[in-house]
## 1
Amino acid sequence: MADTTLYSSAKDYWVKDGAISITLNAMGDYDKIAVSLAAGTVIMAFLQVNGVPVIDYNAGRNYRTWALAAANTHFDRPDKVYVYARLSKRADTAMLIFPYEKIPVNPEPNNADGYYHIMLGSITPSTIDGNRVERTWEDPLEFGTLGTDEQQNAASKDLAEMFELRDGTIFALKNLTFVDGARLLLLRMLVLNGGSSLANISSIATTASVGNDEDFEGTDTSLVTSAAMVAYQQLREAVLNTRFLRKDQNDETPYKLTMGEAEVKGDAEVKGDVTIGGHATIGTAGTQQTQAEVLNVRGRAKVRTVIFGDYTPGLIAGAEQGALIEQSGDARFKSVSISEFLEVPEIRFNRAMVYIGIGLRSVGGGIIEDVIPDMDASGNLLGSGRCALKLEDGEYGAIDIDDLCLGFWHNMTKNQATGEYEATNNATSDYDPRNGDYELRGFQSVYFRVVGIYPTETDYMADDRDAGHFVSDPHDNISNRGANKYFRYTLRGSASGTSSTAGTTGPKIWNQHPHSQMHFGQVANPTLTDRQNLVVTTNKYELKLEKMVWWNYTSQNIVKIDGMLDGFSMSEEWQEPVYDEHGRVIGHQTRTGTRQFQGNGSVLGNAFIYGKIIQFERLARHIEIDTGGDTFIAHGETKTLTCSLRDGYGQDVTDEVTLWEIRRDGNTQDDVAWNNSSKALNFNGTIDITDTEAYSDLSDGISTLFVITAYWQTEDGSVANAMRVVEI
């Protein structure tokens, strides 16, 4: 068939119901879909027009079938997408494709090696009026009705009710209603036999009348054909639908609709712009919301002020409950959870930075935006994959080929039974053997190596693991790498390294893949010497390393250690004199050993000092408190605290104290009064702490802290102090 404007419909094909699964907005990316097929999925198709085949039978006069294949896809445009099955004319293979325009069934009728195209559905754009929105199904995914039992049984039943075969002649069993153009004609008692034929219908039609409603009601003697009934209903609906909005089905109007009051009890979806002059309240009016309704606007929603729930402003910032968004752009929330990225010029208010974990400072690293792990033909996860970095406009990725990288990720997996996300496959304890293997409690350690860089997103999405798509030579021209955004990786594996979970069976298998939104740092590079320096910071020490060519470091890589030195060591060599039998030095010999470090301090290789070096003995004084055995006090009791000051050698130097001070910390308001009481102000190193019905020195909290400070004057005239905290 040479008609290149013919498009397919659901009756032209069949796929087993549920055999195709397409997840929109995969991994939170509005332009990514995840596609999976049931094993052995095939598509069956047949199409003919006026008896002329477009998609014909196979050689055995049966419907043709094609083995269907598909792959995860990332759209490079935010436009509307169509879902098509592309069927090979010559072979029995088909592929799911996702074009941006509709395609005729047979766009190249004269190409025997071309393809047929069967449309299965369509997907909405990811950008509307410049705003990013989730994609949804515009035309839902259909599995087709070609050759189904329902279709065949319905056709057989209609024929059996309309006609009867008698001695080779077909007789109409009831009166027939036909459609002639746009008019509905009722033909009474039409019998097709040897004296009449279909050609006589036009002459008989002059005796017919235009049908009324009652003419289209089937009886025992009058049968309305389905074509006539459909045509009649279509004519009626065409007239009614131009004048009225339907209440029994989905409907729309291109004209302005004005209402005195509108109440939406379910979801509201607006594809254009929305302008609300006053406030907008979303939820169940007059009641506490038990299930939030949804206002889904694909265009722009203009609202002066939006209030969510029972909004109450916070004392300093945010909200105590509910939320507020004002037309100025200001917003107040109680808390915000963001699944991907938060991009702001500045974060203010709490300007203190609290750091827990491990910090990596090196020439490489970044944030993962997208991950596509490799899988084998059976869907099993392999130890390699592809990643994309999150970069700002014009930014160049800080990675290079052969970079060995480390990241940490708190892994969550959805429990299919409860629907809740649960932490899985995370470390159960902190682990740091002082060799570069790290585990943080509650996180996965992710080790991977950059083995190639894709120049473009097209190469990145090719997914054929062909080295022709990525640069794998670390010395290749940097201009061949695009923005250094897309790269191929392999996991560290189990060739080396230790772990708290390794047990006695061997080293841990580092098989955790990178994750989207994960931060990572480059720790080594075996081929590029300018990428072999690393600074590691923990809450116990800071470590500076050089010549890092592998995941693990040794004492040969250490340049400097600051902080807690326990667990670190270095190989050392020294010369010892060799004596003869008379005690005279006759030479030297080299000795080797290992220097173990302990305590807090610094270890460094080279030091260039142009100022003074002052060494002194630091023996800090401290307070000892005698509580009579323990610090517990029962209700109705009194406990005496007796304090003394000791020097660095443990000698009692209490007589040198010039001032004792005690402060209570348990309840803010009551503490002020207690700290200004005569009992606290007259403290001289000894005090009775009482807890009785009539009077108590304790706060109303679970426990009370007393901070005791001793002051004394040093020989140079300055004032020094020592502090001790006791909990009662």
## 2
Amino acid sequence: MKLDLRKENGNNTFEENKHEPWTSGNLTKLNNFIKIKRVSMKAVMIVYNQSISDEIHELIISLNIRGFTRWQDVQGSGSLNGEPHLGTHIWPSLNAVLLTIVEDEKVDGILKKVKEINQEVGQEGIRAFVWKIEQMAG
């Protein structure tokens, strides 16, 4: 199967152009026709003790983060130190998780704020994780 670029025929459709399929003019026309917009996005997941929910709320407001999902009453235990957050009589505290998808340029600001909160609250517990978003739909 051969992939051919098409040349514009004036109706915003493309017809076969067998003589010069890969010229830069055809590539430009095709890119303009498709109008693909690629924005580099990252997922940031913040896991934190519910006792610092106000600080996290201030973080998302101060950085103008509009879209997020939050889970409450999440159980967990940190990998380095600190106490488990299991919602039991022995380990009564619980975590929350906030997930947001943001433009790359917002990530450093989020991580900086998370580090500041961590220094303020110490053993309460907060961690942020970042990964690249490959595709989104909806």
